[in-house]
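Hi P.,

Sorry for the delay on this. The queue was packed all week, but I finally got your sequence through. Input first:
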Amino acid sequence: MDADLKERYRMAELIAGKIAGILSDEEITLLEKWRQASPGHEKEYERIIQRLKTDLRDTHRLDRGREWELFENKLPRKRRILRAWYAVAAAVLVAMVTIVVFRTEKVEPATPLAETVSKGMKERKAILILGNGERINISDSTLNVLVETGGTEVFASGDIIKYNRKDTMNLSTVEYNTLVIPRGGEYELELADGTRVWLNSESKLIYPVRFSGDIREVQMEGEICFQVAKNEKQPFIVKTKDVAVKVLGTLFNMEAYSDTRGVVTTLVEGRINVSNGQGERVVEPGQQVVATGDELVVTEVDAEQFISWTRGICFFNEASLEEIMEKLGRWYDMEVFFVSPSLKEAHFSLEIKRYDNIADVLGKIEKTGRVKFKVNGRTVMVEE
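Then the structure:
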């Protein structure tokens, strides 16, 4: 078997093991190093995770023998293997995960949630990628880290990263940095113009180390709250894959995860203009615009509730269990599977303190008598 293919299939096995909660500390470290080695690896990881989430409930229809036969038959054809390896591996791994899950379901008593998933502690962690590709891991314990890049000083502590432009520098090119927040993490950032940014779990921001020209422009994924420093001569623009938000100085929240409904922008203070290439909307405080496809839908909301996550509180108002568990999965770095797809549509209203023990959080939902949770490692099964 090709060496590259062997590595890819090994990583696929580790992904299944992570979901099943059976990896050793050494294997977890190996998988994380592979994910961080390149953006392509992270994308492949996400593809397999999404495939597993979609197919786990249908594992009884999986013909493992046939999948393995197809896999082996494709071995001589390298190009086709490299394109399809994750799909084939995922099909095999669904069976692997199912075996582990059904075995562990028979084990009583279940392992306490508090021991398996998270203690609910506030965790500051991020990866800062400099313009030259250098990666700096930042956490609660990171103190007084100072680098200079693109004519700007960067100071990172356990709470915040700050950019301070050195006015004596006159550079013709602008360097871009990227801040990546993994699952279970969060971080605060202060850009060179004084704009404050709060990044939620599984989010990314690409930004210049200093702003020049007529506009201040950044690109984002995930969920980010912006408090933009006012500068009428230099508008601030936030771009996602589908939407652009233009502001002068304001406080607003944007949610643009690839696996959720469109792009959601909520305005707390000031005024913004939201466009998607097909149209645009002027948004006032207390309004939210949801961009899906060609549509821009504006509604009235309690805007403060949508930035309360920056203070460790999250409100769900008649939210689907699928939406709730997606957020909890990011916050507590756990994988969530629904035994029955219909459970995703159950709706709940509740207030969650993000740094509470996950056992207490899930316990609130269980007290309704409508769902139950089983945990194995960092995997949560939702059942009736």
